Amino acid sequence: MPTFSAPDGTRLAYRVTGEGTPLVCFPGGPTDAGYLGDLGGLSAHHRLILLDPRGTGGSAVPEDTSSYRSDRQVEDIEALRTHLGLPAMDLLAHSAGTNTAIQYAARHPDRLRRLALIGPSTRAVGIPVPGGTRRDLARLRAHEPWFAAAFGALEALTEGTGTDADAAAVAPFFHGRWDAAARRHHEASRPANQEAVALFGAGDAFTPHATRAALAAFPSPALLLTGEYDLNSPPQPTAEIAALFPRATLAVQAGAGHHPWIDDPARFTAEVAAFLA
User: Fold this and answer.
1) 98 vs 124: CA distance, rounded Å
2) 22: closest CA among 80, 100, 76?
3) 40-80 pLDDT, tens digit each
4) How many domains does the chain have?
5) Cα(186)–Cα(193) distance, rounded to whole angstroms?
6) Would you give the DSSP letter of residue 203?
7) Torsion angle in degrees (nearest 10) through CA of 230, 193, 9, 201
8) Would you call 142 helix, strand, or coil by DSSP?
9) Rounded CA gap, 200 and 98, in Å?
């Protein structure tokens, strides 16, 4: 696995798969990029450069753990761009990783050719996701055999009384199909470094007002793609993030959850490849 040095000297690793124009990919979690796989076959269109964030996968644990913060990891992405020798790059991020990608766009707008945010988080731009929005979206799955138990757990989490068991029980809501493949993928995408998760949004890692102001002048096209059933990134808040970009495309993938490349690889690949073309 190739590595490079972050600005603070931490050795960071990345995976390479596919052929064609490079597409730098930053995962959620924070966890290693392994769960992204080949992004549903997107590697047939692009050479995917999948970065393992600091402290995950093949990347080293930093000496200064405050560098797990989302805003600090912006410069890890910039160091990777420099390492790859790209004057400007296409960047795709998923879930929590979209916070860092959004902050990258705010800080280094001239270094991005196109930006794809998949299942985007709202934390970097301070858009709330009301509990009622999540509950209403969850009720669309009322016909599923697992719904009753999962919805009860969601209610507890929404009310602030949820447990770790409840957090595990809502997993089916994050997939368009809760089958064996989805279960395997769910296990593979779970973060192993809980310190990295805890410190990702610590302190003033997010400055929504400043980030929104910077995005208003972002010159490049942005794609915001979420699943019809994505409780983490519901369509309405995702549309609100899209409205912050001057040149945004909003895509809601029918029948998909938080990992749309798993739920319908062909549809996901077609949408993202067309945007990046």
Assistant:
1) 8
2) 80
3) 999 999 999 999 999 999 999 999 999 999 999 999 999 99
4) 1
5) 16
6) T
7) 50
8) coil
9) 12
Which candidate, 36, 9, 24, places its Cα nearest to that of 85?
24
Q: Tokens at residue 247, please? A: 């040149």
Torsion sign across C-alpha atoms 151, 156, 157, 162: negative
- Is residue 186 situated within a structural domain? no
**96-125 pLDDT, tens per residue?**
999 999 999 999 999 999 999 999 999 999
Residue written as tokens 């991020």? 93
Residue type, 247: R
What backbone torsions phi and psi does residue 227 show, to the nearest 5 degrees?
Answer: -90, 150
pLDDT band at 166 (very low <50, low <70, confident <90, very high): very high
Q: Give the CA count within 13 Å in the CB-facing half-sphere of 68.
A: 24
Here the CATH number for the domain that contains residue 112 is: 3.40.50.1820
Residue 154 lies in a domain: no
How far does Cα 171 stand from its chain's mean position?
A: 16
Give a yes or no: residue 143 inside a domain.
no
**Collapsed DSSP state (helix, strand, coil) of residue 92:** strand
Residues contacting residue 275 through CB under 8 Å, at least 6 positions apart:
114, 116, 221, 223, 249
In-domain check, residue 174 = no
pTM of the predicted model over 0.85: yes
C-alpha 254/C-alpha 7 separation (Å) is 41
CA distance 211 to 169: 34
102/109 Cα distance (integer angstroms): 10
Give the C-alpha separation, 75 to 191, whole Å. Answer: 22
Range of the domain at 43: 3-126+191-276
According to DSSP, residue 43 is labeled: G
Span 228-252, mean pLDDT?
97
